[in-house]
Amino acid sequence: MNVLDPLTALAVVYAVMAGLMLVLWLMDRWTRNASVADVAWCIGLVSAVAWYAWSTTGDLERKILLVLMAALYGLRLGLYILLNRVIGKDEDGRYQHLRRKWGSNERIVIFGYFQLQAASLALFSLPFLVVMQKVSPAFSLWELAGFLVWIAAVVGEGIADWQLGQFRSKSCNRNRVCRDGFWRYSRHPNYFFEWVHWWAYVVMEVNQPGWLLTWVGPVGMGWALLKFTGIPWTERQALASRGEDYREYQRTTSSFIPWFPKTR
Length: 264
What we know:
The chain contains 9 helices and no strands. It has helices spanning about 5-30, 35-55, 60-85, 95-100, 105-130, 140-170, 190-205, 215-230, 230-250. The longest helix is centred in the middle third of the chain and has 28 residues, at about 140-170.
């Protein structure tokens, strides 16, 4: 096939994902579970990075590494969401809230959310595309350092999700606050490690012309987690369901960056 310039490859990713999200939105009229868009985002990111590796120029070894990094990150997260929020589960509370809030207009709002997912996927695929376009041979010390950051982040997020799942699997913990493992040091360690993950590509691209574009990952994800769909909504839900126990958790435990809990 003809080699595409990076901008064209990025445009193809957005167009395909916008079409896919349209199909999923139409299906949502029956399934009523918008979390499927989150699963599609994860799988779509893996597909986008594989597409970049196939359709654009770049060092083959670096391409293989980035595809593997995207696959292990995206498929783990996508499988976690699929098993915990989609299959046999009620729709996530944030989407139920949107439907109630917008009433007769909820169909348009959910459509906008699905399309926002398509746009954000194209945006967050950009760091992978930028790193692939490096002309220097793989692998520099910066790339190895970035890969170590990636390992720490993906493993950390997986452990945090597992610790929370183990806690919630016990009926005696219903409506109680998890303080096990990483959750003793942060109220949202999964979000913290998710954010750290995006710094890996910033580190891999240090001293390269496209370095500033890789900041899309940590800046965009940091904003989403701290100000938009992450911590604010999760905290409201936790206060509503766990009450004073969660207020005490807020008083003693860091909201994001892990740190030693305060004494009561």
